[in-house]
Amino acid sequence: MTHYEIKAEDRQFSFDKEHKPVITVQRGDTVTFNTVDCFSCQIKSSDDLVGDINFDQVNPGTGPIYVEGAEPGDVLVVHIDDIQVQDYGVAVTYGMGPLKENSEIRTKIIPINQEKQTATFNDIEIPLHKMIGVIGVAPAGEAIGCGRIGDHGGNMDNRLIEKGVTLYFPVNTAGALLQIGDLHGAMGDGELDGAALECSGSATVTVDVIKNFKLDRPLIETENRWYTTAARDTFSEALELAMKDMQRLMREPYGWDDTDIDIYLSIDGHAEINQSCEPGAMTISLRVGIPKLEGKELIK
Ligand code: CA
Ligand code: ZN
Question: Which residues surround ligand 2, an ion (CB under 5 A)?
């Protein structure tokens, strides 16, 4: 198995099956994606406000990489081996989220202590929660901007996407064309003002392919749980998709009918918010999770 490293300069601002791959890798290979922050490092001090930067340069994803053997109808497996962030992060308000009426537009540069794995916010220390904001594969149809989220992944802003988890993406084009960017040193569920602790850094992942498996949207496997994910314009649409995905994936391994799955999800499943910073331009993104049980894998 080979370990590759790709540069932050090799980045795109959309997910697109027409993008030329930076490298071609084999199943089982490991790739370190170096990434710039979601502002392409245009914000360097508290004097740099989000409104002043070039928005064409926002939310890049490093890559894409072409995974040999991944064809439409397959699933791309992405295991997160490691995430590193630089020694500071950028936190902002920019006129998004429920509290925007009483907030100024502000930039804060937040120091990160690598030894303690904390970020210093005013007079308190926050534990780092290093995660990937933008991760996904090329969509089947038209290009989709990296700032957006969809069934291909994209700006997922899901705090579960951290070291140790495995993501499963539906493959829409040969090679899948994985891109990664927008690392966060920390982010709360909901990303309530529309921005996280935005960091440059690197993400190291190992890729594999599952042949011929029907998956409509990204699936996440943590140490103890499975999660379906969905993003739509309304909470109810997204929740229905995530629950129906879970129901469909559970049928075979659990051997239950749809009604029993419905009852079970209500007593042992959880709906959790990835991102919700309305009023604003962002859709709702959520996840539905169940415990992982031996012999009942949702995908393999
Ligand atoms: Ca993001
Ligand atoms: Zn971000």
Answer: 38, 133, 182, 196, 198
